[in-house]
Amino acid sequence: MLVVGARPQLIKCAPLVKEILARGRGLELEIIHTGQHYDREMSAIFFQELGIPQPSANLNVGSASHAKQTAIMMTRLEPLMIKARPDIVLVPGDTNTTLAAAVTAAKLTIPLAHLEAGLRSGDMNMPEEVNRKLTDHCSSLLFAPTKTAVSNLEREGLGGLAYLTGDTNADALRHVMPILARMEKRIMKRHRLSSRNYILVTLHRPSNVDNPARLTRIQNALNKVSKTLNVVFPVHPRTDARLVKLTTFDDETKNMKLLNPQGFIETLSLLKNASCLLTDSGGMQKESFMLHTPCITLRSTTEWPETLVGGANRLVANPEEIPKLISDISYDFSLRSQIKKQKSPFGDGHASARIVKLLRENR
Ligand code: UD1
Q1: CB atoms < 10 A from the CB of 363, how many?
Q2: For residue range 198-210, what is the model confidence (pLDDT) as tens digits?
Q3: What pLDDT is recorded for position 331?
């Protein structure tokens, strides 16, 4: 039983689902959607684009406080798990959906497998750090994407349950690269952008967008950037709700392009062709690295320290530092080729096959 609910989980799981269906050899798959993300552009579009079969149940949990959202998920998951009694519950990533399914399975003594195990930012103020740590400690199978993740698990006494599988985001990227090559020109044209003439921005962490004073400082920094560079900003619903309440962006310069959340191919096209990415997302730091686009992460920690090597990704906590850094990076034409030369720490794009084999052996 695979439990998903939020956008990044659909991306991480898509290649794995494909592999189970194609080569699972007797592995049956039941997909449950908690409904944590429910807008078409945060959920349904990814099922369509990535060819994920429809879930057998949607728990329609929706948005709520952490405790309430997690608790409702647990109460709705419990009867489904009791009825299906799966051999293994599989949970991806670090969202409230991950934690709710992990705790529910653990309490029912159903073996639990964690996809993307062992990530640590070291910052327990992030809800994701709490979710991923607790999930790892409830699991009996830990699929670690990188060597760093395995070391983190060893340090917490979980090394015996850990398998270095590689990262399924690398699989997802490998699958869509041919589609991307076919579509990216059309996508760029539709957005009236050309390669390297803009920066891409994505922000949704509570630490950046839930504090009005900090969000205003970030908006001011982006307004400054947009005086000289095009800024393309697909706005996450959490951020959208807060931006509206705050001062709007300067639209005097026509350089600021606010978009709705985009699909996977669309996002990767925008990322691949951007001169640099400014983000606070975990997945985007990684995708940026794999597409060789320099990245600035608006946080003081990262759960993907591998991306920091050679300046491919830089952590910046202070929004006032953004304009100069973006300008330096956008005009540093050698950085992209330096990133390209690095060996990817995220595996060979065949993590899903290893995971399916482990699931078969351990069911
Ligand atoms: C969640 C994950 C985060 C992940 C992110 C990806 C947790 C604790 N956080 O954060 O790790 O990086 O997903 O997007 O699980 N909303 C909509 N439509 C939707 C979903 C949400 O409008 O389809 C709005 C609601 O106002 C909601 C807010 O976005 O209150 C935030 O949603 P929430 O479920 O709290 O999680 P994210 O912030 O998206």
Answers
A1: 14
A2: 999 999 999 999 9
A3: 83
